[in-house]
Amino acid sequence: MDYRTISPSLPPVSIVSLGSWNTFSRCTPDGLVALLSRAFARGINLLDVGYYWDKPDTEDAVAAALDRIGAARSDYLIAQKLWLWNYPEEGFETQLARSLARLGHDHVDVVMVSRPTGETGFANYVAEVIALISKGMARAWGVTNFLPEQVAETLALCDANGWPRPSMLQMQYNVMRRGIVEGPGYDKLWSSGGPGLCAAHTMEGGILAGHLDRDRVDPPAMAAGVRPVGRNIARDSGGIREEIRLRQPALASLAEEIGATPAQLALAFVVDHPALSTALIGVSTPQQLDENLAALDLVSRLPEIRERLDALAIAGVGHPKLFNPHNDI
Ligand SMILES: NC(=O)c1ccc[n+]([C@@H]2O[C@H](COP(=O)([O-])OP(=O)(O)OC[C@H]3O[C@@H](n4cnc5c(N)ncnc54)[C@H](OP(=O)(O)O)[C@@H]3O)[C@@H](O)[C@H]2O)c1
């Protein structure tokens, strides 16, 4: 496992790390202990967790599993998502304190804050995040789905005030959903020494790995009793998912030609991004984890198939919409 330095306040982070949304909550307690134990044994040191609208028990499950594993707190890093569902009425400190109580920890390592709306006072927003670090509730911070100009504004604010810069930028990125992360604005960001890429949704919620029937169920539909096939996955920004399903067999046969699985090829592609800090993967068993980590040995073979990988990119990818489970349309 390779590691990347993302912040002077943190130890280097494993280039593959574990997402938790709709994966940890689908494990049995013993299954989650087995999965996290295997991840730590394989050198993964970052868990991306959050209070999820459709899986609100995830942090409790993580706390119970970590407790049973008995890992020293200094042996792993927690990246904690903070949302804007009730912001600014409910500030970040209240939200983080509640998550820390669920996790049974006194700090997280990175707080990952969502892209603010136009109305949110930007300087106050960043100052509020920095206060979490000053108070010792977090050691570093990162941003999720920020626009390039928002990242630039954030960096300028941090530099002007002597605040720590965000350590990484989480974005949806996979072999077919590439256009935003590789598009104008972000390419400049990656090459100018801004925060590194924390790649999420690297397998399109499992579709790239072969779960072709998966799709998004939005909060109103969920409230009306609709249940996802397999698991819920992220919204389809840009409306390209049907095309992703159609092209998945091409990814699978390209993978087969080089002796790999589609999950491995999908992950190798993301790990190869020059600005990568870490690639989040959602896995629900130690066997899947082991399968996927073999992707690290595939990266050196990507130049052989670069053109055919590039042909899998789908035009029309959209930037993720702001998410609010109370008002999601
Ligand atoms: N910033 C954003 O907008 C955004 C969007 C989406 C996600 N995220 C973050 O990224 C993290 C990961 O996202 P994600 O869950 O969408 O991840 P993903 O890695 O795209 O997909 C995870 C799914 O892939 C399947 N999978 C993985 N390896 C496999 C294998 N070897 N064989 C078969 N299936 C395999 C798993 O299926 P099974 O469930 O069947 O095991 C799993 O549920 C999340 O926890 C979330 O925090 C962020």
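^ NAP complex. The pocket of NAP is lined by residues 19-23, 48, 144-145, 170, 172, 200-206, 209-211, 230-231, 233-234, 263, 280-284, 288, 291-292, 320 (CB under 6 Å). The CA atoms of residues 35 and 285 lie 6 Å apart.
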